[in-house]
């Protein structure tokens, strides 16, 4: 992975940002450090250039991790969404706007920022719960729900009031639409989807891949037998 150098000692998990002159020392025990994702080499040769091996880096506003998953990406997207929400809060609370209009503005300016690039995320339940928790907190503010009324107010009623769909449905639709695009493609993106990684994996249950998550979405939405190459049928099934 390319980006800022962040390393962790394999025994005590002490963190430290390194400079070119540092000796790869752990900030806690000053021992020999190694990359956080377990890669033994500190750099790789690509043509005539040497690239640093790091644990994570920022790409188009999302933090990508060499260890897989989308924890960093969801955290970054949530922070961006809250920043946009705070800037738009006076508009969203305006009495001159109907609830449907508020929902449309929220979906366009806030949700779109929070779900940017979500079609490629292999979401886990903690990631999904984090997104839903923040989404519902912002929706309650738009609808002026008081703290003492939170326990008795149903999120489905607020979504209907604003004319919005549940976040889980939107995420699934985005993944399935992108899955259809990848299956129909003849470029490198299709090759990467079908690529088999060689080597042995470590102990424990492996992380869910994006393909496994999408196959679960197809099963839940009864699209297992639908051919993605049939654009019209696939599009109507996804929607």
Automatic annotation (TrEMBL):
Residues 196-239 are annotated as: Disordered. Residues 214-233 have a biased composition (Basic and acidic residues). This is Zinc finger PHD-type domain-containing protein. The lineage of its organism: Eukaryota, Metazoa, Spiralia, Lophotrochozoa, Mollusca.
């Amino acid at each position: 992975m390319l980006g800022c150098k962040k390393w962790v000692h394999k025994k005590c998990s002490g963190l430290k940002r390194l400079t070119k002159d540092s000796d790869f020392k752990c900030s806690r025990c000053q021992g020999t450090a190694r990359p956080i994702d377990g890669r033994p080499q500190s750099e790789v040769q690509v043509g005539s250039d040497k690239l640093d091996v790091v644990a994570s880096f920022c790409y188009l506003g999302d933090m990508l991790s060499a260890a897989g998953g989308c924890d960093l990406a969801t955290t970054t997207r949530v922070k961006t969404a809250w920043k946009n929400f705070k800037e738009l809060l006076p508009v969203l609370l305006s009495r001159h706007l109907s609830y449907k209009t508020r929902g449309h503005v929220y979906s366009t300016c806030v949700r779109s920022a929070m779900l940017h690039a979500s079609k490629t995320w292999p979401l886990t339940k903690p990631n999904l719960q984090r997104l839903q928790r923040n989404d519902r907190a912002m929706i309650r503010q738009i609808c002026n729900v008081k703290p003492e009324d939170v326990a008795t107010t149903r999120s489905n009623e607020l979504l209907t009031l604003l004319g919005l769909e549940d976040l889980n449905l939107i995420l699934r639709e985005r993944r399935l639409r992108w899955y259809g695009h990848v299956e129909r493609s003849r470029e490198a993106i299709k090759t990467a989807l079908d690529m088999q990684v060689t080597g042995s994996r470590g102990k424990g249950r492996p992380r869910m891949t994006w393909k496994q998550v999408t196959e679960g979405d197809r099963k839940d939405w009864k699209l297992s037998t639908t051919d993605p190459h049939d654009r019209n049928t696939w599009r109507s099934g996804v929607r």
